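tl;dr need the bound structure. longer version: we got a ligand (alpha-D-galactopyranose) that a collaborator sent over and nobodys looked at where it sits. i said id run it. heres the input, straight from their email, havent touched it
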Amino acid sequence: MTDSAGAVADRAAAGFTARYGGRAAGRWVAPGRVNLIGEHTDYNEGFVLPFALPLHTVVAADRQDAEQWTVWSELSDETITFGADDVAEAGRVTGWGAYVAGVVWALREAGHPVPGARMAIASDVPLGSGLSSSAALESAVLAALLDLGGLELPAELQPRLAQRAENVYVGAPTGIMDQSAVIRCRAGHALFLDCRDESVEQIPFDLDAAGLTVLVIDSRAPHRHADGEYAARRRSCEAGAAALGVAALRDVGVDQLDTALAQLDDEETRRRVRHVVTEDQRVLDTVALLRAARVRDIGPLLTASHVSMRDDFEITVPEIDTAVEAALAAGALGARMTGGGFGGCVLALVEADRADAVAAAVTAAYAERGFAAPGTVPVLPGPGATRLD
Ligand code: GLA
């Protein structure tokens, strides 16, 4: 357990005692995530390579007899209660509580008898920064409810269930990457996930040993139309796959790309397809380099991924592009936006002893452009969701 998880876990335990009296039966932690490379490939049944962050959501919980769920969150200092009626149908609980109710709903829908529970939630995963605060919340709640109910659900089946909570109960059409990362990542590794069959390989990503770090830069850019644009990208990809007569864009290899593009009439669809097909290949190339312990050499792939997201997928914003350019100018080995786009975070691969200088350069570039100051934090790959005590 990292220090940060310890502090968050203490707050969850204190919150539990203050709200409900007594001690929680246990505490469950789930991390935020960044995606090293492989953006908007998950719902195209392709490849992604995320790793877990040393930022955490902790749920302190115990059972309650009634078929009722009472949840306090430190973020809003609010307590909500919902019952069986609220999880009989998707969408009845709204706001942050929807992620919790969604997990109860998804478990029940899958035929699991979910115990009533009291929960206290604390977190240092920033909201709305594209670091998967929602998947962390879903996954920590899922782990708690499984244990409290004595339910068996193998780790490889848990991401789908948490994703259903988000897709159906909350109503966000996201892919399988975030919940997979949060649940299945391991410390010191990136998770190579094949989003078609959900098979995984833990790829050693020992930045520390290589004298490197990943600087996560929170662009602080307001998310502009992110939900609508995400859904629109997804539709374009599905239209591209249909026009090409394949089940998903994953089925188009880079060696077939020119032929495939020539079959598409619409220029925008061509660009969207080109991003996804080349991005899948960049994930495979990154994995090959990491397997050969050539960590520094992945830098150009990260930057190429950014260029593809900026020019072909068109999901970046000025704050994001500024952060990438400033990081590269200050000596980052590679930099790219991570996550769904239209705001969120940039990651830069940097020599550990250059992290401060790169962060300062990005901050200075922001000041020059009149943007609100970015957040910067160096990170190493941490463990996935687990029970703390
Ligand atoms: C968001 C979604 C993921 C994935 C990324 C883009 O984070 O939740 O499923 O599609 O965007 O790679």
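gonna send this back to them w/ a short note. The chain has two domains: 3-205+383-387, 212-379.
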